[in-house]
Every structure is written in structure tokens, then in C-alpha cells.
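Task: complex structure prediction.
Instruction: return C-alpha cells for all chains below.
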Amino acid sequence: MNGGRLLYWLKDFWSEFRKVKSGLVGLAFLLLFLLSVVLEPLLIPFPETNKRWSDITYWDENPRSAPPFWTNWFTGKKSAVTERIRSFKAEERQSDGVTLRNLTFPYEDSFEYPPYDLIVHFSGKGSVPFLVALQRPDGEALELIRAQADLTEGEDFHVSVDKEARDAVMEYVRSKESEEAMSRLNRSALVPTEMIFAEAGPGMAAKPIALKGNYRVIVTLMILPDAEVKDPFLVVSGRVSGILGTDSSKRDIWSGIVAGVKWALLIGLLTAFVSVSVGVVYGIMSAYLGGWKDSLMQRIFELFISVPLLPILIVMSAVFKPSIWTIIVMMCAFFWVRPVKTVRSMALQIKEETYIEASRALGAGSGRIIFRHMVPLLIPYAFAVMALDVPSAVVYEATVSLIGLGDATIVTWGQILRGALTGGAVLGGLWWWVVPPGIMIALMGMTFAFVGFAMDKILHPKLRTR
Amino acid sequence: MGSVLEVRNLRLYYHTGKGAVRAVDDVSFSLAEGETLGLVGESGCGKTTMGLALLKMPTPPGRIEGGSILIDGRDIVPLGETAVRRTVRWVKISMVFQGAMNCLTPVYTVGRQMLETLRNHKTMARDEAERIIAMYLGLVGLSPETVRRYPHELSGGMKQRVVIAMALFLEPRIVILDEPTTALDVIVQAQIINLLKELKRSLKLSFLFITHDLATEAEVADRILVMYAGRVAEIGTNQQIFGGGSGHPYTRRLLAATPRIHEKVSELSFIPGAPPDLLDPPTGCRFHVRCPEVMDRCRTEMPPLVQVEDGHASACWRCVHG
Amino acid sequence: MAERDLLVVKDLKKWFPVRRSLGQWMAGTERPAVRAVDGVSFEIRKQEIFGLVGESGCGKTTTGKLVMKLLEPSSGTLEFDGMDVTRVTAEELARYRRNVQMIFQDPYASMNPRFKIREVLDEPLSIHKVGADGRERADRIARALSEVKLTPVEEYLDRFPHMLSGGQRQRVATARTLILSPHLLVADEPVSMIDLSTRAEILHMMKDVQRDLGLSYLYITHDLSTARYFTDRLAVMYLGRIVEIGRPDDVIGAPRHPYTRALIAAVCEPVPGKVSTCREIPIKGEIPSAADIPPGCRFHPRCVFAGPECAQEPGPELTEVGADHGAACKRLSEI
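Output:
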């Protein structure tokens, strides 16, 4: 197909496609998907999602099983939202070559339910003693952590209030509570952040009431001459987190979903393209060669089509180490049969066309007739079939992943669903874990179905396309 | 006896996205009882459209724009669809469509299809209908046994006879035939033509015989109307048109381009160019671009239909000026 | 075989087997076949236009396809330029294709509607690997288009078939056959789907081409009138066999075979005065099926001159009735 003819055909096709509304909707969604793949680094807050989906430490700062941040809009009592606070006021004082740096992070707590944790991050080199204190809106200040950071170049240092400030908070509570309440208090059940963000006074240990207002987290660093501190920021680990919440392993689900787009597209498009290409050529050859060769090819086709794909996939995945490429190859090996019957009947009709006979009269061989005359006529139909095959492939992969036989090294929507299943998401009411991947699979299916139907409508077996 | 069909200034245009295709553009003629009028012209001249117009069945997006069609004195153009279906179509005027013999449904017997058509138009008892069918099959030269056959079991000629019988059995006054013999073999064609002549005589029917083949027209038509690009080029009797005194250059050239079997023709003439685009026909006479006798007036003014002799008219400026 | 013969067809047969029911198979009845071509012999001389005329089902198109080697004969021989080409290797077939080409009836259907004219004409060159480079191929294409009078050439090269008229398409189809410089063109009803006024133009062009390039044509048609005008010699076929063969003036002017006579009697002419009378056609009945051919002379059930010997085997052979004029009838002297 030369360029000029392709362009003419594309223009013609586009003017028809524009008229089919569902096709345009599908196309819009497809563009959105593609855009999300391209802009992935910008869209997801956790850039190494792909590689570190199974790495617990990467997700440590997120709250566990936290709903999405926008659920706050629908509740009366608001929960603290996970934030990263990078803005601070810095003050420095020098004395005897030692720099005393004060970093003040403002934090507005307007929530009924305070954050789970406050985590201070910084990096640099050297040994840096530091102090983390909290300035409350009621004027009280308390020291949370006093420790020393041994920094290595290139590595991030972080300290968590929930883990390290337990004793300091206990003291603070003791200073406010009655003897009786303190004796009933279980030290390990204490949630430090609940205390430090609560109204000070008796009863705070048992039933803390949130103290809303402007807080300041002050980090004081003693930087010796050969030490260095840079990139400080504060992570507030809220009770609600992210666009789609977190799962029981603290993973940000939005990141997982967005990261899964490219896998879905890859699986879908690659499987569809390879299998349809094979299927179309197979169908045409079967029709053109005719006679016993046609019969043989049809018998082979019937063999493949009567084999159920899913059990085979399961067996193969159980036997071989499941990798996404094995799954794709298996799917291709069975998806190719889909267009064969229709393509064959279309090809049988084309075979009878006078210009095919004319080509033979000119001396054309089977190869030329099949690939120069018949295949171009079937390419439009092939595209329509491809479009409809994409969601099938995505669902198959999701199904395989769901059973646990998918490729665990990558993030696919099927993998997320698997996590939800084993992580007790349904019983735990963690709807934000279960629903999004399902919706995405459906959306991708809808997108390609719309595009495919629109294409089919325009390009359906018209043998005399002008 | 007045004319059984009279067409006056009929115009039928197809309203496509690109504009109005003037398929029939101001055509007038009359058809007497027991007469065969031949409508002849090349593809795209509007003759099939003309036939469909007479049944008030223009193919969409066609519409009758103006003029009148009088059947037995009654103008059918202003009539509504129901009235036309009940009182005109197949009752007064019927049609054998182009390629009709291939439109017989392959899944029903011939008899069943004829029965269905007949009883759709006239309520009658089944045996009465069967009697009529048997009679008309005999009239077209087929055995009554034909009712039990399927269309694929019949030859082309037999199928055409069935279709003709179906056009006749409601006893219309006028039968339009659109290329009834074109797809048939030579001998069968001659036999069908003989049949039509016989029917014309015995049933006193009027035929409108549409074809592009001048030779066939000469065989069947009492009078001939030559159409070109949606308009009447010439109209006259069989003798006048074919007798050598033809009044219109187009007709003359068309005759010269028709090969004859009984003459040794050394050079067959042709008309260069092609019929005009009816979306945007040329100004003046529509034939002037291809006409060997074109004058200046032809390029700008449309020639009217002028009488050349009694019963013979031609739309050509040469007939006015000489 | 004379030096001047380009193509010689001897006793060519093509039978298409028909399915038998289980009962018939068990009864051991001979398998019926549609005898489309049942023993046809003729020669086409160099630089000659040879016509094959007959009604539908007579086997003329099948004969054309046999000559084109689009079908394999059931029996008989085919000789081209002195060489037996009945059975050929793939290489010989490729060479044959360069020498014998075909023009089809439907000018639109014979070209891929998605190919531009340039690609349509390039295809034969590409198949046979003719033309060392793009320039040479473009030259050949241009020359072929000028030969069929489609000029200026640039105006047509980038068009699609549906942008051309029927006559123009048929010219392109002709150009496509000429591009390989063949010696024989098989033309199957080349003008029957074209307007009357353009028909003569196309035939005119084809005659010019024939004269310029010294080609021979096998002109297949059902239209006797154009056959008379166009051909140098012609043969009339009925039910798979030739019944009469000779020059147009003889075969059409003074036909000897009853079938030829019936055919000619049936043809209409654009002359006045025929309306009131019914045409007398000397023939009976309908064409029988080619699977069930009458014994003896296959025309005898329909022949108005048939006698008792006509129904007996063997059927009549072509007998000479004049100079270069033959007819296959047992009762030639009586009619």
C-alpha cells in the first residue's frame, strides 16, 4: 500500500468515522489511555510503582487500607489526608562552626480524625543530631524525638513519630491525665498522633477529641562542620490517602491503576495484532487454495476452536513460570481462530471477482493475489476484529492473574484484583481496592468495543469499497 | 379514440447531496390505445426514470417536480400514495422492470408468487385466482404446470414470460416494459418479441417499450421517442425514424452506430464523447457538445420541439432553420 | 498446421462433473457431466480476428478460458505457434501468459477498484519482471495508454477505475493486455456492457490496435451483428460444438446450418416496416441442458429440417460447403 493511496483512504475513512458518535467516544477514551501512559511519571505520586509494587518498604509511609482522600467530602467528620509538606521556614544560627538550623513545617489540622503518623525526611552526609518538636495551636509545645541521624551520601533518612515518639508522648499524656486513667492506659495501644493532635486534658487518653488548628512541626538540626543536610520534607501519613486510597499493603492504588494502563494496552494490542494477522492470512489462504488444502486447514481450525483457552492457560501457567510474555504467546496461539470463518467466507467471494481472474490471466501467482489483492480488502475488517479482541485479552490476563497464575512481577489490573481478593478487600469493605480495577477493565473493553463497532459499521464486509 | 396515456411537461429530479440531477426534464408525449411507443436512448438518458415516474414510483431521492400524467384522462401526479396503489398501479398501468426475471424469489414456487401478487391487488377466491393464472400462463406460451416450478428451474425466456404474465393478469390498459429482452439470447428475444406483438393484438394493450437497442425498437414500436440527457430529442413513427429521413442529428448518428447483420459495413461510426452530467447540463441544446452539425445558436439556446412533418417532431435548431 | 496458424485447437473438450446422488452411485450409472465444450476444433491465423459466436451456454466463454489456460481441458490439444501447450510447466505457462492475454466483459469488475490506473497497468510488468527500472516501466505504461488513445497519459495514471467511463475502462483493460506485447488477445464480450454510441468507438480502437501491432483476436460474443462487422472469420457454436465456420459474408450472408439460419432470422434490424408482422424463426423448443445432450446431431430436436438420420450416432462432422466455409449437418444437400 503506497502512501498516497493510504492517505486517500484514511481521509475517506475519517469522514465516515466522525459520523459515528460511539466511535468518537471510544476514540476519546483511547486517547486518554494513551496520554496516561505517556504522562505516567507526572500522574502518579510514586514513580517506582512498576518495579516496587511488591516491595513493602517503598510503601511504608502510606496508611494501611486507607480510603481515597475525596471520601472526606462525603463525611461529616473529616479524616486527615496524607500529605507531603515540602515548604518550610528555615532559620540558621551559627556558633563555633556549628550550624543550628531550625526548619518549621506548617501543618493545618482541620480534621476530626488526626493523621496516623508524621515522618521527617532529609538526606546529606555526616552525623547530625536533631530534635523534632510540635507546636500546638493551644500554645503548648512538646518535644517528640531527640536522636542522631547518621547520614550516608545519596540515601534518604527518615524518622517516624509513631515509632520513635512513643515515650515522649506518654510523658505528655501523663502530665495531662489523671492517675487513674494512666493506670488503665495500655502503652502499646497508644497512638501517639491521636494524642498530640488532641485537646489536652483529662479524658484524652480514652477519648481524644481532635484539636483543630495550625500546628508547626519544628525540626532542629545541629550540623557540624563536615556534615551536610539537604532536601528536608515532612510526610503526614493521613487516614485517607491518594486518589484511590491504599490497600492492605499500604500501596497507593491510583499508582497501581495508572501503571497498569500500559500493561493492559500492551497485552491487548499485541495479542490482538498478532492473532488477527495470523487469522486473516490463514482464512484467506484457506479460501484461496481451496480443495483438500482448504478442508485440512478448516479441520485444524476446528481443532483449535474447540479447545477452551482458560484451562489451557491455567495449566500452562502452572507448569511454566508465569511471565507476561508466556501469557501473551498462549493467548495468541488461541485467539487467531476468531476471524478465520468470516474472513474465509469473504475471501471466497472475493476469489470469484473478475479482477482476480484477470490477475491470474496476467500470470499472477497465488502469493501475489493473496497479498496484493485480497489482504488489502480485508484489512478494514481485520482492524475491527482487532479492536474487539483487545478487551478479551485484557480480561483473560486478569482472570489468570486472579487465580494467582499471572506475572507477579508487573502491575496489572488483574494483579490488583488478585491482591484485593487475597487481602480480604471485599469482606473488609475496602471498595476502593476492588472497584477501580474492575471499572478500568470494563472501560478499556468499552473503549475498544466502541471503536471496533464503529469501524465495523463503516468497514463491514463491503467487498466493493469505492 | 383519445390517448390512453398523456404526459405533459413532466419533470423528475433526483435531489442528491450535490444538487438536483435532472433525470427527466420537460418531457411530453401521448400513447394511443393498442399502440406501442418505443422509448429509446442510451444509459443515463432518463428512460428508466420515465417508466418509474409513470407508476409514481421514483427511486428516492427522486421526486416529480412538475407536469402531469394523465391516464384515461385522469391526472395521477396529485394523487396520494394509497390512491395510486389502489386505483392506478397494476390496475391501470403495470411494469415489467429491468431484470425482473431475476427478481423472482427463489424460495417460493412460481405459482405461489403469482398468487400472492394477484390476491394483493384483488380480493378473490383462491380457485378463481388460479384459473386466471393458468389462463395468462397459457397466453404467454407456458404450460399451466409451470406454477409448480421454482424460478431456478426455468430458463431465462420462461422467467421473462412469467413476469410478463404477472404484469398482465390484472388487465391494465398500459404495460411498461424496461429492457425486457436485453438479457436474453437472440432466439428467445425474438420469441418474446413475437409474443408481445401477439398480446398487443389480442388484448388491445398499449405498450411503452423502453430499450437502448434501436434494432429491437424498430421491430416492436409503432412510434418512437428518442430521449437524450433527460429531454426529448425526437419523436416520430417507425417509418419516419427508421426510414432514413430522421430529423435529429443524434438519432441519425445513433442509427449509424448500430451494426446491421444484413449489410456489410466497412466502417461503423460512433459518437465521440459521453452523455452529459445531469447535475449540470450544458447550456443550450444538451447534445451540442457532441453534435457534428452544431451551430452557434445550439450552444446558447435550448431548441424547442418543432414539427418536421405530420406526427414527426424534432428538438433541433437545424429543423427550424434548415 | 499451416505456417500462418497462430493457435490451433483440436478436439478440445471440457466436462464439468456433476454430483451424483447415493442411489445413482450405487446403481453404477455413468457419472453425468456438464459438457460445456464437447469437441471443438479451429485455427486462428496470424493477424486475424476470429469470432466465436453463440447463445449463452454454448460453451464459447469456456472455450475462451481454455485458450487462456485458466481452465485445464478434459481432453484435446492446444497448439500455440507450433508448440503443444496442452500441458505446460509453470515456466512455460508464464511464457504463454505473455503471449496470450484476455479482455473481460465487465470493464469495472476486471480491475481491482482500489488500484490506481498506474498500478493496474504496472501489475503485468511486475508479475513478469519486465522493465529494468521504474523509468522503463513508466515508458511502457505510457506507450500502452497512447496505443488505446487515452491521452494525455498523465491525466489517467492517478485515477481510480470508478472515475472513468465504461469505454475508458475498457481501453485501460486493453492497454493492460498490450503492455506485455502479446500475440493473441482473447476478448470475451468486450463491448456488451458499453453504451451503443461508444461501442463502435471501442471496436474501432481494437481494430486499430490489431493492425498496428499485428495481433490476432479471439472475439467471443453473442451479438451476430458486431461479429459480422468486426471479424475476419467466425465460428458458430451450439451446445459445446461448432456447427458452422467460415468468413462472415459466407456464414452470415449465406448460412448453411439450420441453427445459424435460425439465429440470423431472429436478429432484429433498425429498419422500418417490421412492426405489424411476427418474425418467422425456423426453430423449435428450448435449449436442452448441457448435462443431457441429445444423441446424434445435438441440434436435431429443435431443427425444422431434421430427418431420421439426425438422431442417430455418430453426430455430424464439419463438412466443407464452400471455400473456407464448413457446416456440421447431415442433411446439407437437402436444405
